[in-house]
Design a protein that fits this description.
It is built from eight helices and 13 strands. Strand 11 and strand 12 form a beta hairpin. Helix 3 crosses helix 4. The chain is globular. The two termini are 25 Å apart. Pfam families: Peptidase_C26 (PF07722). This is Gamma-glutamyl-gamma-aminobutyrate hydrolase. Keywords: Hydrolase. GO terms for molecular function: gamma-glutamyl-gamma-aminobutyrate hydrolase activity.
């Protein structure tokens, strides 16, 4: 085994959830599972290895089996969560739920619950923050312009806006990014009622919740952080990815020691 092999064996394996929807490439127009490369480029630059997790029907046992080979988990961005998952009727601006989007919702809920049971590190990104909140019994504002009176959080046409974020003292998010940071945002939904066992760790100037994490009083050993913004859009700032990779490396070492004992 050469030095390169040893280096990759030390890198934690991070699972990233993917889209499941119709996609075009060349002459093909098919249902596909895919993820923008910038996500796993962020993981790689931070020292991890990426494993893509296509949405599929799973139960609790299958979700556990999928996580057995991983050291960390990222719930990525994408379509709106089905509001039926948090007991609300659909707002006209909310994406119409489809079979594939419901499969993805259920898949990510199952992975999150399995990760929390075993104490696996988790990073939620944009939709991922909303999925985490809903998985733990929270709700969402389905259309932020109705709440804050403007559409600057999602300008449309794939143009990201920059939001000024203020973090909460003593949180993991503040330890990672500091007291304030500028973030790339593209979301028309946000957390409303907070999920059970979560705390707010950052907000923007409109008072919109921009980051949450697990309450250390409820989950003292867990590293679970979710941000409403898109850190993968700023790969000159790897602090969130690096935090996940570091936590996942420590988790992987504990897992190996437990197996060896």
């Amino acid at each position: 085994m050469n030095g390169s092999d040893l280096e990759y064996r030390r890198r934690p394996a991070i699972g990233l959830t993917t889209y499941l929807q119709q996609a075009q490439t060349g002459v093909w127009d098919v249902r596909a599972s895919f993820l923008p490369a910038i996500y796993f480029e962020g993981v790689g630059l931070a020292g991890g290895m990426s494993v893509l997790l296509p949405p599929q029907p799973v139960d609790a046992a299958a979700a556990d089996a999928l996580l057995d080979g991983l050291d960390g988990l990222i719930i990525t961005g994408g379509r709106d969560v089905d509001p039926g998952a948090y007991g609300s009727p659909r707002h006209p601006a909310t994406d119409e739920p489809a079979d594939d989007s419901r499969i993805r919702d259920d898949f990510e809920f199952a992975l999150l619950h399995a990760a929390l049971r075993r104490g696996m590190p988790v990073l939620g990104i944009c939709r991922g923050a909303q999925v985490l909140n809903v998985a733990l019994g929270g709700t969402l504002h389905q259309h932020l312009p109705d709440v804050v009176g403007h559409s600057r959080h999602q300008q449309g046409n794939a143009v990201f806006s920059t939001s000024a974020i203020t973090t909460v003292a003593g949180t993991r998010v503040q330890a990672l990014v500091g007291a304030t940071t500028d973030a790339q945002c593209y979301h028309h939904q946000a957390i409303d009622r907070l999920g059970d066992g979560l705390i707010v760790s950052a907000s923007d100037t409109d008072g919109v919740i921009e980051a949450v994490e697990t309450d250390p009083r409820r989950y003292p050993e867990h590293w679970v952080v979710a941000v409403q913004w898109h850190p993968e859009e700023r790969l000159d700032d790897l602090r969130l990815f690096a935090g996940l990779v570091q936590a996942s490396s420590a988790y992987g070492q504990r897992k190996t020691q437990k197996v060896s004992a």
